[in-house]
Amino acid sequence: MPPKGFQRKKAAASDGASTPQLPSLAEQLSYLEAPRPFKNPNYAKKTSRRSKNLKAVLTQEREREKAERERRRLERIEGGMDVDGEEEEIPTYTSIEAPPSLLPPRHYCDITGLEAPYTDPATKLRYHDKSIYELIKGLSASAVKEYLAARGVNSIVK
Amino acid sequence: MDVVTRMPSPAPPALPPPPSSYDEHRSQRTPLVIDNGSTNLRYGFATSDSPRSGLNVIAKYKERRTNKPLLLFGDGVDVEGGAKIQARTPWEGDVLLNFDALENALDYAFIQLSIDADTVDHPMIMTERLCSPMHSRSLTSELLFEQYSVPSVAYCVDSVMSFYQNHGPGADGLVLSFNTASTSVIPILSGKGILSHAKRIPWGASQSADYLLKLIQLKYTSFPTRVTPAQSQWMLHNFCAFAPDYVALLRSLSSPQALREADRIVQFPYALQVQEEKTPEELERIAERRREQGRKLQEMAAKVRTEKLLQKETDLQHLLNLREGKVDDTKREWMYKLQTEGFDDDAALDETIKKLESDLKKARKKEAAADGGEDTEEPTFPLVDTPDADLDEDGVKEKKKQKLMKAGFEARARARREKEREREERDKEELKEEEERQGDLGGWVRKMRSEQESLMTRIRERGRRKAALSDRKSAAAQARMKNIASLAADDRMPKKKRKGGGEDTFGANDADWAIYRKINTAAPSSDEEEDMSQLAMIEQKLLLHDPSFTTHHTHASLASKRSELVSTLRPTYDESNAEGLCRIHLNTERWRVCETWFSPAMAGVDSAGLGEVIQNVLARFSDSEKGRLVKNVFLAGGPSQLPGLVPRLQATLRPILPPEMAINIGSAADVDADPWRGMARFAQTDEFESVGVSRAEYEEYGGERVHKWWGGNWN
C-alpha cells in the first residue's frame, strides 16, 4: 500500500532536523486529546470493583451458581409439586463448561506428532519409532520437561 | 517439495479513516451497535451497511522522545515498541475483565463516530460472552449507563446474531462458534438459542497459536530470531488445516516421501554475513609481514642475549682480576676492596665467580647448539670407576655427582635407542602393510574394514554399558553392585577351604585386577582413547587407499547420522547458511495444531473435544429435534475458516447420527462482520425495543438483570 509507506516516510523525515514540530505517526494516531463531550463528568468509577482478577471473578461465579442451585432446591421442597418443570435450568458461565473427555486418549509422538505406539519408561515421552527413541536418549532433562509440558504433563520434581 | 514462503514484515499502521459525520444521527436515537469481540471491536450505527472495526486493544504510554502522554487504539499500538509493551485489551482470555481498557476503546469508537452531544443518547445493542460472568455484565452496564448515559442496552450472543443474519428469524440450527479463546456449541430451535444445552470448550484460536508457537520453539531450540505470537498466528492461518481423518493422515505421513510433500517452509528475515574476501596477494603480504615481525623479534632477543653474555664476561674478568690482586694487598685492604665490590667474604666472591662461569658455559653451549646442531660430544665421567679410598672429601662428592649424571645420560641414550627401534619397527610394519595392500587390495580393505567395524562395535558397546550403568535397576548396574559386594566381603573363600590350605588366589592372575577397572565408573577409560586413536588411524588409511570408503563411512559421521524421518521432519542446514538457519519447516504441525480443537487433551487441556461435545449436546434432544439441528450446522467465527473443517465435521457427525438424518454444514457469509450485521438488522425491528434494559430498570435492579430473549443470555 503506497499511501502507508508514504505517510511513514514523511513522519520519519519530519523527525529530522528541519521541521521537528511535525508530529510523529504515534502522535498523529493518539486520541488522548480528542474531546469527549459524551462522557458524564460526575461519574466516579469504583476502581476497587474494576481491579478484580480473573480467578476472583470465576470463583465468585461458581459460588453464585452453587447458591442459586441451593435456593431452587429449597424452593422446590417448599413449593412442592406446583413449580417443578416450569422454570428452565439457567446456565451460567461455569455450568456450560465442557466436561472432561471420556474417550480413550490417543497417543501421539511428543517429538514428531506421529502415532506413538511406545513410551520411554525413563522420561515418559511417547515416541514413534526407534530413530525417535535415539533422539530422546540424547535429550537433556530440561528439554524432556518442556516436551512433557507441551502435552500438559508436569513432571514431579524429585 | 520446496515451498518457501517469506514471513511478511509488519506493515506500518495506517491512519484511521476520518471520523464519520454525526449530523444524520444527532438526536435521532439511531440504535448504536457494538460487537465487542475479544480480538476485534466493531461499531457503528444500525443504519450503516458495515461496521467500523479495529483490533480491540489500547495502549496508554509516554512517548520517549517528547515525553508526551499518548493513547493509541487498535493497529496503532504496533507503531512503537513502547506502546506495544503497554498494550491492554478489555478481555482476559475469554472473560471481559479490564474495564479501563474497555472505556478507552469505547471512547475511541464514539470519537470516531463523532458523537458531540452531552450523552450517548442512542439505544445500544452489544455482544457479550455466552453465559457471561455477572461481574463482566454488571461493570459493562455501569460503564454504559453512568459514564455514557445511554438510554437502554440490549445484550446478545455474537454467534446467534450471526446465525440470524444468515438464516433469518425462526430458523433451526446448531451453531459452532469459533472464538478467540473458546469454542461453543449452541443449539438453536425456531430462532431461539437453547442456552441451557449449550457447551463451551476452553480452547480457541489463541490457544492454538500458542500451541503452534510452543511446538516451533521445541523443534527449533536455538532459532536465531524470536518467533512472535503474531507470527505464529500468521502461520496458523496460512499453513494449518483440519484433517478429515487425523490418524489416517498421520499414517500416510510416516513415510519420508509424503512428509516431504507436506513440508512447508517459512523463511524468516535473515542478514547475510558479508565476508571479506582476501586476494592471494593480500594473504601473502600479511604472511610476509608476520614473518618479518618474527624475524625482528628473534634478532632483538639474540642481541639482548649477546649483550648479556658480554656483560657477564666482563664481570667475570673483573672479578678474576680482583681475586688475582689479592696477593698484593694486605688483609685489611683486601677486605675493604671486597666490601666495596659488595661481597661479605672470600666464599661469596668464589661463589659468584663460579656461578658466572657456569652461566657462561651454558650460554656458549646453547649458542654452539644453535649454530652447529646437536652437541654430539660425549661427556666423560673419569671419577666413577675410581674407588672411594683413593679420593679425598671433595673427590667423593664429585664422584657422586658424576655417578648421577652418568645414570641420567645413559637413560636418555636408552630412550633414544628405544625410540629408534620403535620407529624402525613401525617403518617395517608399514612396509609390510604396503606390500600386503599392493598384493591384495581387496583382502586388505576387508581386513581394515572388519577392524574398523569391531572397534566401532566396541565403542558402541561401551556407550551402551555406560548408559545402562546410569540406571540403577539395569542388569549391568546390578552386576556391578554384586561385584563390589563380593570384593568387599571377607569370606570370598569358604572358611572350610581356607582352613584346608585353600589360599586366596586373587591376584595370582594379572587379569584378576581388571575387576577394579570394571567397577570404576568415574574414571575415564584409557581404552576408549586408545580405541578412538586407532580408529582414526584406520579410517585415515581407508580414506587414503580404499576408493569405496568415503567420509560418510567414518565413525564420526555414522554416529551423528540422523534417521531419514528425523531429517525430513527438521532438515538441518549448514552453519554458514544464514538463509537456511532462519527457516522453519512445518509438516506434521500443520494438522497437529488444528486437531487440538477436537482433542484439547493433546495440548494438556482436560476437556472434551468438539466432536464429543457436539455428541453430548445432541444427546439431550429428541430425534426429531436432532434432525432439525444437524440439517443446518452453522459455523461462525474466524477460525472456522481454517481449511478442512467442513469435511472433518462431516466425518465426525456421520457415525454418531442415524443414516437417514441429513447433515448440512454451512458457514457464515462473512464471518467477521456478520454478527454486527445481524445486530444492526435486528436493531431496526420493532422487537428491539422490548429486549433492552432501560435506564430506569438499571437503576431499579442493578447492572446484572437482563430480559430473556432469543438472542441473549439467560443468566
Automatic annotation (TrEMBL), chain A:
Keywords: Nucleus, Transcription, Transcription regulation. Residues 60-79 have a biased composition (Basic and acidic residues). Residues 1-11 have a biased composition (Basic residues). It comes from the Eukaryota. Pfam families: YL1_C. Residues 107-136 form the Vps72/YL1 C-terminal domain. The keyword Transcription applies. The keyword Endoplasmic reticulum does not apply. One of its GO terms (biological process) is chromatin remodeling. One of its GO terms (cellular component) is Ino80 complex. InterPro entries: INO80C/Ies6, Vps72/YL1_C. Residues 81-90 have a biased composition (Acidic residues). Residues 1-101 are annotated as: Disordered. It is found in: Nucleus. This is Vps72/YL1 C-terminal domain-containing protein. It comes from Mycena albidolilacea.
From TrEMBL, chain B:
It comes from the Eukaryota. InterPro entries: Actin, ATPase_NBD. Residues 9-20 have a biased composition (Pro residues). Residues 1-27, 365-439 are annotated as: Disordered. It holds the Pfam family Actin. Residues 409-439 have a biased composition (Basic and acidic residues). SUPFAM superfamilies: Actin-like ATPase domain. Belongs to the actin family. This is Actin-like protein Arp5p. It comes from Mycena albidolilacea. The lineage of its organism: Eukaryota, Fungi, Dikarya, Basidiomycota, Agaricomycotina.
